[in-house]
Amino acid sequence: MADNDIYIRSAERREYFRIDDEVLLQVRPVDAAEVATIAEHIGDRMPDRFTVAANFAVNSRHMSRLLHGMVADAPDLVRCLKMVDQKLNHLARLFVNEAVAQGAFTRLQVNLSAGGLVFPSPIVFAPDALLETRMVLPPSSTGILTVSRVVHCDPREATADGCAWLIAVEYVHIREADRDLLVSHIMNRETEVLRRLRGEGGETQ
Fold this sequence. Notes:
Blueprint: H1 3-16, E1 19-29, H2 32-43, H3 52-68, H4 75-102, E2 106-112, E3 116-121, E4 130-137, E5 142-155, E6 165-173, H5 176-204
Antiparallel strand pairs: 1-2, 1-4, 2-3, 3-6, 4-5, 5-6
């Protein structure tokens, strides 16, 4: 089997691994001209106030690997750089929280993967409709910007929140670095759930 085939299959497994989670979500339909503009922004390396935390999170990972090799020779410098990194990430989260406060974000229970999203909605969207999705992952306040395509829209039982539809989307435009952040978030959430289940199981024995 070719190495490329192994990579593709690994990427597919990564995208289809799903969890139920609570996120802050803002969704709006977009036309072809807007899609082109958003896609260009997603591909741009310069973040805005909403995506800055995601950019910093990626940079922090790269920096952590570099600092690991320096800790033996310059421990004080490493500690200092880590403190600066933490402060910058804290500032980036404040920017994201400000963007959330100014936007029409809703806290929703969703089904999340690195390849797409399922969420409840009060609005019906036609299959193949394109949506701008802005998603904030707690507790890190990481903002993920994507253009998504509606895969299907199904009616659901009436609920108090007025969300009569269940929308499934797949990401059409997303930074690969943001997809990696989603993978890490999903794995961390899964680890938390397993740890909690083991703890509850231990208490009942």
